[in-house]
Amino acid sequence: MNVHAIIIIHVTNINQHSVILYKLLLLFILTRLTHLLMTIPAEMHAMVLEQPKKALVYSTIPVPEPTAQQVLVKVIACGVCRTDLHILDGELDKPKLPLVPGHEIVGIVVKTGEEVTKLHEGEFVGIPWLGYTCGRCKYCLRGQENLCENAGFTGYTINGGYAEYTVANEQYCFPLSPAYANAHGAPLLCAGLIGYRSYGMAGAAAENIGIYGFGAAAHILIQVAIYQHKNIYAFTRDGDTIAQQFALSLGAVWAGGSSETPPVRLDAAIIFAPVGSLVPKALRDLDKGGIVVCGGIHMSDIPSFPYDILWEERVLRSVANLTRKDGDEILSLAPLVPVKTDIQTFPLRQANEALESLRNGQIQGAAVLIMEELKMPSCSLVVCFLPLTTITAQLDGHH
User: Do the Cβ atoms of 346 and 353 come closer than 8 Å?
Assistant: First the structure.
């Protein structure tokens, strides 16, 4: 196929903000054209977990075929989450095997099942952890689909996004705006979602909020919280001055090690680090009536603690999974803030290296896998950014 396109984007005022928007628009155009012009291959590359406590294997496997209610998605990027480490380490012990991990997926729909009605080929979507709910159990019927007794989870019980293609039920895909239809959007699909749900559990009245563990979720949540005029106190590993400076650069009013005492009593504490000993520490940091929210899917054992640090109506609670409502809300809110993710990218075949970097605390912000850049044979595209006055003058010259 020979395709030649000339795209002229007229602008009236060029500034730094405009340049960023133009780059995002250009990326959107190029990505969409690239994927629409590509044919779907029979096989794809994927990183596969063959058994827990073993490294992922770079494999060639068949491209999945969407069922009636599924869409086939060409993966653009997939975030690397600490939950993936818990699966690999066997701490989450019920994965399908072999398994393609990954549940922070940004991609483009390239094929739809016969009963799909909401999504169309060429649309950008995000695919999160929650991949299926039954709609019939007591939890689904009372609006707690995140607790569904028959739930399916992307990258755990359903193959995920550490691959060039994946399938997903259309009801569990989120449409993405051009601003997040790229690697920077991937962390929103879990770190953003779980961070946002944890933030909601902390209570709207909370003003002084502690965040324990300053990684992917925290660096998104702090932007939302500050947008809503909250004071954030960031706790990192003791001695991790780089993470503390990162938190301060994003607007934290204080940052210190997890063993330190904040300068004020906290209204709420959100724990993202999977360290059980942080629970009594956070309770001690709380003011009366404060809430401790454990935002992870797995945590080391919580040591015993005296009742007096829970007394005075302090609350300790966990967060499990997410709801589609959470996703709709954070993806609507993110452009208003606007949320900007700090990412470190790795090619798909380096997923093991990305996971180890995450394990060792070497990632600032979020780690994201990106697929190899696709090429468009026999296709040329010219994009021109011209001031409106230039376009008008050129048009006048042809009259």
Answer: yes
